Amino acid sequence: MTADVIDIAHLVQMSVAPVFLLTGVGAVLSVLTTRLARVIDRGRQLDLWVAEGHDANWYAHELKKLAKRNFLINSAITLATVSAFFVCSVILVIFASQVFPSQTVFGDVITTCFILAMVSLMLSLALFLGEIWVANTIRYFGHSLPPK
Questions:
Q1: What distances in angstroms separate CA 43 from CA 100, 102, 142, one per listed residue?
Q2: What is the distance between the alpha carbons of residues 101 and 43, in angstroms, rounded to a whole number?
Q3: Residue in 55, 65, 63, 54 with CA at minimum distance from that of residue 131
Q4: What's residue 5's pLDDT?
């Protein structure tokens, strides 16, 4: 094999780990969007219950909880997407470092992007945990069905 082929093979090997990380972030985004869909479905169900004449105070309380869950999930989705962006940036910079081998700044850029990706993902998961906590407090400490 020529030196160019060996260099390209090594480059592809270095970019495989971030690609797996990107796959994991994609899975997290899938879970988050599913949770967001459940919040939206619950809001629609609340609208139907209120239209049927159920207690408006109960509705307002539940709607406030749903608004909090919505905020937490949307924030988590935003941070997970930012994390995916930084992982993609790591892959891009790895390849750019081979195109411009004389530049010495690439190592610092890769490190910074990777750290930002991990911090964004950690914050996203923390918000996801917060949303789960809020959802469980609705189920166990609040009313899951409207009072008649």
A1: 53, 56, 16
A2: 54
A3: 65
A4: 67
Tell me the per-residue pLDDT of 91-138, one tens digit each, with 9 for 90 and over: 999 888 888 887 778 889 999 999 999 999 999 999 999 999 998 885
Q: What is the 3-state secondary structure (H, E, C) of 7-41?
A: HHHHHHHHHHHHHHHHHHHHHHHHHHHHHHHHHHH
3-state secondary structure 61-96: HHHHHHHHHHHHHHHHHHHHHHHHHHHHHHHHHHHH
Report the C-alpha gap between 73 and 94 in whole angstroms: 32
Euclidean distance between CA atoms 120 and 129, whole angstroms: 14
Q: What's the whole-model pTM score?
A: 0.82
Q: Which helix (H) or strand (E) holds 60?
A: helix 56-99
Per-residue pLDDT tens digits for 11-54: 777 778 888 999 999 999 999 999 999 999 988 888 887 777 76
Q: Long-range contacts: 40-47, Cβ < 8 Å, 24+?
A: 42/66, 46/146
Mean pLDDT, residues 67-90 taken together: 97
